[in-house]
Specification:
There is one protein chain. The protein has two domains: 293 residues, no CATH class; 108 residues, Macroglobulin (MG2) domain (Immunoglobulin-like). It is built from 18 helices and nine strands.
Length: 485
């Protein structure tokens, strides 16, 4: 196997927070399936459990595989990533009928005090019914797809890790809403007749075809970052854009048309019965019987509350620790791409303004004429101030931990002001040096840097605490107002 291809296949950027969240989701689902089985529900078919697991894996693969690592450089990889987030993971997850197993798999205190009341809250129910209305879901899906493929928002996502993650969240959760009426996971009920899903999917396919045709047939590069970036895998930027559009066209059409055909055949054959519509398991007469079957030896509310708080604190601590130590290649953006001597050199660095402190830079070295990636090169960094004085010793770069095509090194940007970064490249008997200007901006804020992960944890804790005390207050008031018999 070609050494460059080997390096590509080993270029995984595993996101620790997303991985933890998906593992916890899978464990909660499996625990819920086990509890439902123990309570007297027939087992969920193995294919549904497998579908849910495969959907979670597809979501993780989209965020952790080389598709994510090379999405800033190759539009085709970025499009494949979007197809996994929109066309593969959501329907597979919904086919696993996750709602009831996940609620049942939660700690009993969390299910009783938070999940159950939220799902039964009339406002949440109205919002859910509105979002999963086929008209709303179809419009929302089309709007998100077209807005995020407009050049300005797309470029923003390429330049900013936070916006890139927000883009992915929009694609995934909007697709969950879109696929909900199609899959109709139990215990939800269809609001439209089943045959209406055929035109619903056909219209979605037309939206996808229109957007993909723009990419395939456009005579200009829509996204400047890919035009200015390195040419990888033998694709020119124009060919890369056309290939990305073709992938969107083919994968999207298959994802929409195949379910439409299956639903049409199902409707024509009249195989759906009232029992299959509700899919209510036999042997369970009422909701109250199900709740009674989940009684545990630990009946103390105090014990449940302490256990839940302990679990929440431990999970939050792990979440904060992972977010503090996580490094993501999404934070690296193209700073300079230049042909110098026999090489084509692309330099990547932190997005946004540079501030004093450590900073990671990466260099991609290619042959100028063939664009072959030269992994056997030697790369060194040297940081100089405006006067040409060396600010540090020459720093050798090595192949990165995530992107195996980049030579990476950490630099200490100790002082604010104008600097020059010299990148020296040597391959066999060929040498070249590229000088890149750097502007380091002094920090204006002072004091403790409040991390976003702390804010998320505190916000969730505040919402849960407020919801719990409001419920206790309401239930106590109802108890005092009850007549004495």
């Amino acid at each position: 196997m070609n050494h460059v291809l080997q390096a590509v296949l080993r270029s995984w950027s595993i996101p620790p927070i997303a991985t933890l969240a998906l593992v916890l989701t899978a464990l909660t689902y499996l625990r819920g399936v086990w509890l439902l089985c123990r309570a007297g529900y027939p087992n969920l078919p193995a294919w549904r459990i497998g579908s849910f697991a495969l959907g979670l894996f597809a979501l993780w693969f989209a965020l952790a595989s080389p598709l994510d690592t090379f999405s800033p450089f190759v539009l085709t990889a970025h499009m494949l990533q979007h197809m996994l987030l929109m066309m593969v993971a959501p329907p597979l997850i919904l086919l696993g009928e996750p709602l009831i197993p996940i609620v049942r798999g939660m700690p009993r205190f969390a299910a009783r005090e938070f999940a159950g009341p939220f799902l039964n809250w009339p406002v949440a129910e109205r919002i859910g019914l509105t979002l999963t209305n086929p008209v709303v879901a179809l419009v929302l899906m089309g709007l998100v797809m077209f807005v995020w493929h407009v050049p300005e928002p797309y470029e923003l996502a390429l330049r900013s890790s936070a916006w890139h993650q927000f883009e992915h969240a929009c694609f995934f959760f909007t697709s969950i809403i879109f696929w909900w009426p199609v899959v109709q996971p139990w215990p939800s009920r269809a609001r439209w007749p089943r045959w209406a899903m055929v035109p619903y999917l056909v219209i979605a396919d037309l939206q996808n075809t229109l957007l993909s045709a723009v990419l395939v047939f456009s005579d200009k590069i829509l996204y400047p970052s890919y035009a200015a970036g390195p040419s990888l895998f033998g694709f020119t930027p124009q060919e890369d854009q056309a290939a990305a559009g073709a992938i969107m066209w083919v994968v999207g059409s298959l994802a929409f048309i195949i379910p439409a055909i299956l639903i049409a055949v199902q409707c024509l054959a009249r195989r759906r019965t009232n029992a299959s519509l509700s899919r209510r398991p036999e042997g369970v007469s009422s909701h109250s019987e199900t709740r009674r079957s989940f009684e545990s030896r630990f009946k103390s509310r105090a014990f449940e509350a302490v256990s839940f708080v302990t679990l929440f604190v431990v999970t939050a601590a792990v979440f904060v620790a992972l977010s503090s130590n996580a490094s993501d290649d999404d934070d690296q953006v193209l700073k300079l791409s230049r042909q110098e001597g026999p090489f084509a050199v692309s330099i990547c660095g932190p997005s946004g303004e540079l501030s004093p402190g450590p900073a990671t830079f990466g260099v991609l070295v290619q042959d100028r004429s063939s664009h072959e990636v030269l992994l056997d090169s030697e790369v060194h960094f040297l940081l100089r101030d405006n006067g040409g004085k060396d600010e540090s010793a020459t720093i050798p770069a090595s192949l990165g931990d995530e992107n195996k095509l980049l030579f990476v090194a950490d630099l200490a940007l100790d002082t604010a002001g104008a600097h020059t970064l010299d990148v020296s490249v040597r391959n066999a008997n060929r040498n070249a040096t590229i000088a890149m200007p750097l502007e380091v901006v002094a920090r204006t804020e002072a004091g403790f840097a409040f991390r976003w992960s702390y804010a998320v944890v505190f916000a969730i804790a505040a919402v849960l605490g407020l919801a719990y005390f409001l419920r206790r207050r309401t239930s106590n008031s109802a108890g005092l107002a009850a007549p004495i018999t």
